[in-house]
Write the structure tokens for this entry.
Amino acid sequence: MTEDIPGEPLLLAEVDVLRGLPQSEVKYLAKRSPMVHLAEKESLTLGDYQRGVFLLLSGRVRVYEPTTCGNQDLTFSVLEGGTVVDQPASKPRPSRVEALEASVLMVVGLEDFEGLVVRNPEVGLKTLRLFGERLHDYEGRLSSLIRKEVPARLAGLLLRLSEREDAMAGDGERRIPARYTHRLLASMVGSNREAVTRAFGVLRKAGAVETRERQIYLTDAAALAYFAEAVR
């Protein structure tokens, strides 16, 4: 992991909550905020930056809570470049960010971010909406974790991913653009890789999904929705 100052204004201007800001504001943040470069599979602890707001400028990361007993960790979110990184309150184990591919983050000082919001209230509104949507997603996944078996949890997750990532349509099916390993999906539904592999088998047998060249295709959204509603 390396740190570099100044930041990159062009990438910063493309962050979802900052789009439309005056160039002067973007350059001010870039000048004052260090960038953190993570190689693939490299990670950092969010708690090490107590008074900073993380912006993912490029790459792809997951925000997760590690475990100390060898069990599957819990992934809160998977994020693509151009957004704010959420920092769930996770005690006693602080949340971490792991790069799923080479990624660049910027750490904006909390006081700088607060000043930006005071001068540009729309930044605060966009951030609140974004975090509200993510909280809604977390709550839905938590409800599924308590009430549903792994196939139902996986089906619901795949439907949400296809909607959130604007899955490409063609020949009556949808493709989730980003690649997700069984291990990563397991950490998102509170299970393990073996159980997710079995769940994929169930959904594939029902004609709801297929995997080709390491990508997931939703071949029957109605069947997937039926599985997603199943409770214990």
Remarks:
- The first strand starts at residue 2 and ends at 4.
